[in-house]
Amino acid sequence: MVGAGYVGLTTASCLAQLGHSVIGVDVDATKVDHLNSGVIPIVEDGLESITRQMLDAKRLVFQLGYSDSIKSAEFIFLCVPTPQDEDGSADLTYIREAVTSLLPFLASGSIIVNKSTVPVGSTLVVEEIVRREDIFVVSNPEFLREGSAVHDFLHPDRIVVGSSDRRAAQRVADLYQSLNARVIICDPASAETIKYAANAFLATKLSFANAIAALCEHVGANIDDVIEGIGQDKRIGNQFLKPGPGWGGSCFPKDTRALVKIAESAGYDFELLRGVIDFNEIQFDRIVDKVRKAVGGTLTGKNIAVLGLTFKAHTNDLRDSPALRIVEHLQLQGATINAYDPTVTNPLAQVNICKTPIETCDMTDAILIATEWPEFVSLNPSEIGKVVRSKNMIDARNILDADLWRAAGFTYQGVGR
Ligand code: UGA
Q1: 14, 216, 251, 361: the active-site residue
Q2: Would the N or C end of the chain have less CB density within 10 A of its end CB?
Q3: Quick one: 153 and 223 in the same domain?
Q4: pLDDT (tens digit, 9 = 90+) per residue, 237-254?
Q5: Ligand 1 contact via 44 beta carbon (within 6 Å)
Q6: Is residue 405 part of a domain?
Q7: Would residue 186 show up in a list of annotated catalytic residues for this protein?
C-alpha cells in the first residue's frame, strides 16, 4: 500500500482484516513510526483498533520508503494524493514519483492497483512509465467517506475494477471476495469515470437540495418536509439531501473541478457541473448573508461565534471546509470570530479558538452552527442566552430545534426552514 493517508491507511488495515498480508509504505518517517506503534493521525471511527489488531497479528506493517520487501507483493496499491493544480486539474506528480520509485522492486506478474482519484486515462500513464508486459495496471477507485471509512470499506455498495486484462481485474476483485459485494468489471477509462461521476452526482444532489432550500425560504415552504416528501420516491432516495452551508472536504471541490477540466481537455463543456460548483460558492455567501442580516445589516465590529470548523462531523479534517470559507467571508466583512470544534485545538489565522461552546458564545452578536457535531444539538439555549450579547442563531446544518431556541428569545434562521 503506497501512501498511508486516509485512503491508504484504511485500505491497508481493512485488507489485512480480510486476511491479507499488507505492507504500508510511506515517505514520512514520523508517520511510519507512529503507525507501527498503533498511533493513527486521523479521527476515523474504528480505524485505530483495527490497525492495532492487524499490527499485533503481524498481518500489517509500515515501512519507510521503497525497498526489496516490495518484491514479494502481488498487488501494489497506489494511494498517494492527487492535489489540485492551479487550473483545477489533478496533479499526477505523486503518482509518477511513486511508480518511478517502485520500478526496481516490481515482481513479474504483479498488479499495480490505482486507488488514487486520477484523471481518465491515468491507467495508461502508469502503464507507460512501467513499460513491462508482465506487469498489469488496474483501476480500483475507492468510495469511502471520511468518518465512516472502515464501515464503508467492509460494507461496500459495489467494487469497481477497471482493466484491459480481464484476469488481472478478476485477481483484484478476488481480494474483496469475502465482502460478498457486487463487482463491476470494466475498462480503465470507465472505472476512472465512475469515481468522478459518483462524486460529481453527489455534489450536484447536495447543491440541488441547497437550491430547493433557498426556494423554500422564498415561498414559505419547509425543506425538512419537502426532502421527506421527495425522498420517499425510490428514484430520488432520501440520502444525501440534507441542506447545509455548502459542500466541502478533500474530495468534492477537487474532484468536481478536475472533472470539468477533464471534460474540457476532451472537448466537452460540462456546463451543468460548472453551474453546480458556482452554486456552491453562492451557498457560502447565502450563509454569510444570514449572519449579516441577523446582526442588523453590517458585520463591521461584530463578534461571531462559529460552532464547528471541520468540513463535516466525526472527522478532524479542515481541508476545503465550508466553515472556514464562511469564516473568511465574515472576517473580510469586518467581523471577529470566536470558534469551537471538538477536534480543533491548533491556532487558526485570526480566529479565537475556544475550549467550549459556552466560552465561544461569550459576548457574541450571533452564533453560527457550521458543522453538525452532535454535541451542539443538546446546547442549552437559556444558558447560552445568558452569555451572548445578542440572541441570534444561524443553524447552517438544520440540527437544532428551532422552537426551543425561539422560546428562549433567540432569532433562529436555518437553511430552508
Ligand atoms: C466523499 C464521497 O461521499 C465518498 O463516496 C468518496 O469516496 C469520497 O468523497 C472521496 O472521493 O474520497 P467525503 O469527502 O468523506 O466523501 O464527504 P461526504 O460525506 O460525501 O460529505 C461531503 C460534503 O457534503 C461535506 O461538506 C458534508 O457536510 C456535505 N453534506 C453531505 C451535506 O451538506 N449534506 C449531506 O446530506 C451530506
Answers
A1: 251
A2: C
A3: no
A4: 999 999 999 999 999 999
A5: no
A6: yes
A7: no
